[in-house]
């Protein structure tokens, strides 16, 4: 064993004191270890354990590929035996691409995210195992785990590399703990215009369109203005944008607007 | 422009005829292009467009790093101008790490998946833009898009590489179209034992435990058996496993079981 975990820096883990641990079984390439470390830190995971890394430890390529995720590399722990790497964990998940003969619960990463959050909330220590790059985990590793995680991807082509697999599990862990709306109209420093501002813009617009002969068929005018209102109303138009549009109207009309209202 | 899109092979796209297109603006490294192609195909995305790739095209490193995602590389199209790369698209999303001054709707990848599925269902052609590796997209690219996609990750460390960003968007696209339960008890070829089989196992077990002096305090026996039942009941025990356990009981008792029932 080498490295010491120390107390978790919760500014790196989204405030979580005991986030899931990532365990790599017999990782082959330092590049992949480093990239996995980097993927982890993007997702607020900081504790990495390696069981019998092929090229030993420390590993220059791992450091180089961690690209700033030094906190993960520096605290990486090395183990000779799986049992020792897993000893303190209460919940162990193992990623595998192929379902196996074992009778085992199977999670998707989407399902695992909330499950791990629930585990952590009960102060359980959680680990997720990943196997060697080309061959994956063996049956004995599946037997050590409480459940399997399988990433549902294109059956016509499934070939994630190690860091990508770590990223997807980490991503789902992170997503399960954040509350970012799936969709927002991002107004940044702007603020939506008031209804009155917008209404006066439409009145201005209708007047200009009228005077420029845009409404060739009188009966269609209300419907056309409704359509035009819909164009601008759905974009959450801001105060500044109202000014911009009114300025455009003035310019288009050669600066001649004499507002009736 | 080079390459020809041809008709999409829907066995590679999960059955979707017109999946979202991935557009890389000024990609720098062939390695990253290849890895992005591989990430795409994992998620059922097959159409890649490059705008002013730094090292031109074709690119040996892109081929090497695509690791089997040849169908993507072979059909990659090259453009000198963004406008041409985007011309046939109805919906354009742009990934960016930083929110900007533009007033723009913002999706998370989680929100974008179903949105793109809805777009595609209406036969709209969809594209997602990604910027150059170190610098990301510029404001002009944000202006070309209908909405921005920002991946909510660790504010304490956010540094996805290009292929990982493509993977996360592609992963959410794929997830939004599949129906894999978040959790399953995977029984594989086994079948859960019948209630009767399980009950007879418990009776057998209780008898053996009794005869071996396990129940030292008589009043606690029902509660202890309840706990024991709970251990085995929650694992979805199979017929084969019942046999295994009963065989264990017999062996432990030195082969002496004389069943009372």
From TrEMBL, chains A, B:
GO terms classed as biological process: tRNA nucleoside ribose methylation
Origin superkingdom: Bacteria
CDD domains registered for this protein in UniProt: SpoU-like_TrmJ
GO cellular component: cytosol
Domain tRNA/rRNA methyltransferase SpoU type: 21-171
One example GO MF annotation: RNA methyltransferase activity
Keywords linked to the UniProt accession: Methyltransferase, S-adenosyl-L-methionine, Transferase
Pfam families the record matches: SpoU_methylase
Family: Belongs to the class IV-like SAM-binding methyltransferase superfamily. RNA methyltransferase TrmH family.
PANTHER family: TRNA/RRNA METHYLTRANSFERASE, TRNA_RRNA METHYLTRANSFERASE SPOU TYPE DOMAIN-CONTAINING PROTEIN
Protein name: rRNA methyltransferase
